[in-house]
Design goal:
By secondary structure, the chain is α/β, with parallel strands linked by helices. Helices cover 40% and strands 21% of the residues. It contains eleven helices and seven strands. It has helices at residues 8-22, 38-41, 48-58, 77-85, 98-107, 146-156, 175-181, 193-202, 204-211, 219-226, 232-239; strands at residues 67-71, 90-95, 114-118, 131-137, 157-170, 185-191, 242-250. β4, α6 (146-156) and β5 (157-170) form a beta-alpha-beta unit. The longest helix has 15 residues, at 8-22. The chain is globular and about 50 Å long.
Length: 251
Amino acid sequence: MNAPAGTRSEQARQFYNAAAATAADFSFMNYGFAPLSAELADSHEAERHCLQLYRHLLGEADVAGRRVVEVSSGRGGGAAYVARVFRPAEYLGIDISEQNVRLASERFAAVSNLRFQVGNAEQLPLAAASCEALINVEAAHLYDNPVQFFAEVRRVLADGGTFYHADLAWADKDPVGLIAATGLSIVSVEDISANVVQALEADHSRREAIVANFPAALQNDFRDWSGVVGHRAYNRLRSGEWIYRAIRARK
């Protein structure tokens, strides 16, 4: 289901669809996390800092044999990693961008416990109490109504299920309070802003190379969006205007 024209969700859908048509050779869209764990520090994976954000957020999560949903799964890199390493029975990635879903479905078709579908975070196409874990990485700040999304998280989680949430917010906002207000119990909250800034600095050259694929007139916009050092997202995180948190909550 698409969002109404002119909404932030619809603008994001159009933006990500356009990005998919211009640069299709990367699988993650988050700002990453540093330092790297031993397994990733020794890896030749180009997007290892982005992957590390998922690894840090999930920690020692036990989702083997369970149903996991990721809302705003993007191009599917995080979903594929969690599906392979954490071995859930089923991993469903939901994203508002049709082109993100297409790219993810094509690239990770061989991952047998993984599938993707189009959907709106504020109206999840899921039955109540239908998953044991829900993951949401660096996306809710783009939603029209994050409060509605957090209410949907509580609705679709089974009793005892866990919400894994990583996102940025303006320094005067309180996403932890919004999540708690749904009735979910906060398990842990971390300010990982410094870790994200460190990852953006380490990943600068790769991000700059991706931006070079875009038309010249759009490159500064994409530098702002993608966290290139010296541009808007990086500057706001480094200055403390934005705080990036890893939040875990349980139903």
